[in-house]
Amino acid sequence: MKTLLDINNGKRVKILKISGGKGVRQHLQCLGIHIGDIVTLKKSSFLGGPVLLEVNGFDVALGRGVASKIEVEEIE
Amino acid sequence: MRIAFVGQPNAGKSTIFNGLAGYKTITANFPGQTVHYTVSKVKVGDEIFEIVDLPGIYSLTAIDLAELESRKYILSGQADVVINVIDASALSRSLELTLQLAELQVPMVICLNMIDEARRKGIEINIEKLSQIFGVPVIETIANKGIGLDNIFNSAKQAYYKKLIPKIQFFHKDIEEKIEEIEKIIPEDFLKNIPRRYIAVKLLEGDKEIFEEIKDIPEISEKVTKLREEIKITHGRHADTVISSERHALSMNIFEDVAKVVEPLKSFRERVDDLLTNKYLGYPLLFLILFGIFYIVFEVGKFIEEPITEGFDSLIQKLPQFIEENSLLYFIVKGLLEGFSGGLGVAIPYLIPFFIGLTVLEDIGYLPRMAFLMDTIMHRIGLHGKSILPFVVSYGCNVPGVMATRILESPRDRFITATLSVLIPCAARTTVIFGLVGAYIGGLAAAGLYLFNLFVIMGLGAVLTKFIPEITPGLIMEIPPLRIPAVKNVFMKTWLRLKDFILVAWPLLVISSVVLSFIEYLKLDLILNKLFYPVITQILGLPEQTGITLLFGILRKELSMIMLFQAMDTTQLNTVMTNLQLIVYTIFTIFYMPCVGTMGALVKELGFKKMILISGLTILLALILALTSRITLSLII
């Protein structure tokens, strides 16, 4: 299963599963990131840095720890 | 009438609030800055409105302290009208908070702010339709240009007198049935001001605080647990995820009903943004921006400072011509002049450019981008990118820096970040660095001290995280779009930050200067200095007279420098102290004890014990660092 960390820059993906505790889950939900959402991976920083996602028209930065818990599938 | 402003971070609540209240609060362009709510009274016509600016919240699910605080206020039923401020360019997400606010059943006005931003993104919103759906007034504003603000009070009055309570948007039938089941068994007098539907939904979501309230009613808690289990079985997801998805779906539907999305204008700003967060170019740019600000502050400051201090110095030297030397009056006038020139000539030339720089960075929205870039490095010291924000704010003043640690979720991160934040040279300590090391030894040495300070902070961070290990959830943060700061805003904010110095610190400085002068007159300083002698002279190798000045530094850091001029009886410090002594003195001053204001903030955020712990730690650290640098530097110089 691919996570956000396995995706190349500029690709659009659909979020399939968010693992991790309730805290992380709720925090993502509050920022408007839900299962089934389609997001664009704008940037992945190097050397273990965070990734930058575009979700419904705004940008969210996610640390690598969090990003590794989000399973996604690439869409065309 | 009491009006509360509620909205997501960066929606522009504080800008609206300032526009209405006349610049009494400081806003900043990153999540969680408004940590205390601010109240202001505004008179419009014959009516007095009390307006309340609450911290930005993403939802009514309390995740951090700021959210909890906002929620508590709204639930307390103190607001007659809620103004729900929405960033129109992020409408679909903002509607999720609106749906939750609707459940509180308080008269509401929806304020679509930054409507220009939305148009730029290609979003056209039909406000009549939105108003119909929720049954409340909807207005459009562009707060940073002051457009539409005059509609706010009228709509608030309309909502209040016509009791325009938002219509509840219903979830799917199976969830609604479960909500109803819980609603039925909630006793009549339970949490009186809060609508039962809201309680029921929050219980289904597994909200900790409200669960705590019902734990004495086993009938309800058992029922809720059972229903949550049922949802998990039928939907295959946790109940909180299901409800959040329901809300998400509802807001997407509303969004599609009321908004049309056309092709956005690909902007110049996006290209700039791309560059600023570029994985290679982002770092040199970050360095250039910060270096640029410090360089300008130093250069501009020096240019203004020199003529001022020189003027006052010659005046003080001429003083014996007018007043008899060694008389009480002479000491008092001398103290007054020294305190006055200290504030005017040393702090203000540095503070004004620095505050302008910091405000511009904030208003552009560069700080969250900095957090994005720095996440990797912050991980090395066991924190994550968000911690950089309290750090950067601390360069202005440690007090808001400590308060900004509220944006962090874990208590452990808050403690470590606060401890490290109080070591950051704030504007006052910057004044000391510039005024002592910069002025007498040179800019390079001053810059070196900053670098040294950074290494110490990183080192201490690494040590602290070893002692208090914990897996942090990691960075989750919105990056708001870049914005062009409004000139008026920048000046008002700079003024607000400066005002505190002019009205509080400066008079304090003048008074303390006179007090010290008086102490000197009574020769009490000799006794106090004898008391500090072992530490000051034997350990740190500083002139005996400096002992008393460090005592004043606890009040405000820059006081210790001005008192130093006083105590040494000259502003030409290089004639009475060696470079080594100046550096050791500066190092000790910038590390030992946070000032009284910061200690107050620490007590408020972390509690009394942790404040004592942190203060003790900094004294120990300052002693160790000053002593080691004394030994090492004496070998070099």
UniProtKB/TrEMBL annotation, chain A:
Short name of one Pfam family: FeoA
GO molecular function: transition metal ion binding
Keyword set, alphabetical order: Iron
Domain Ferrous iron transporter FeoA-like: 2-74
Record's protein name: Ferrous iron transport protein A
Organism: Thermodesulfovibrio aggregans
TrEMBL record, chain B:
Residues engaged in binding Mg(2+) 1: G22
Subcellular location: Cell inner membrane; Cell membrane
Keyword annotations from UniProtKB, A to Z: Cell membrane, GTP-binding, Ion transport, Iron, Iron transport, Magnesium, Membrane, Metal-binding, Nucleotide-binding, Transmembrane, Transmembrane helix, Transport
Binding site for Mg(2+) 2: N18, G19
Transmembrane segments: 280-298, 340-361, 415-441, 447-468, 501-519, 531-555, 576-599, 611-633
Function: Probable transporter of a GTP-driven Fe(2+) uptake system.
PANTHER family given in the database record: FE(2+) TRANSPORTER FEOB (PTHR43185:SF1), FERROUS IRON TRANSPORT PROTEIN B (PTHR43185)
Record family assignment: Belongs to the TRAFAC class TrmE-Era-EngA-EngB-Septin-like GTPase superfamily. FeoB GTPase (TC 9.A.8) family.
Protein name as catalogued: Ferrous iron transport protein B
Organism, scientific name: Thermodesulfovibrio aggregans
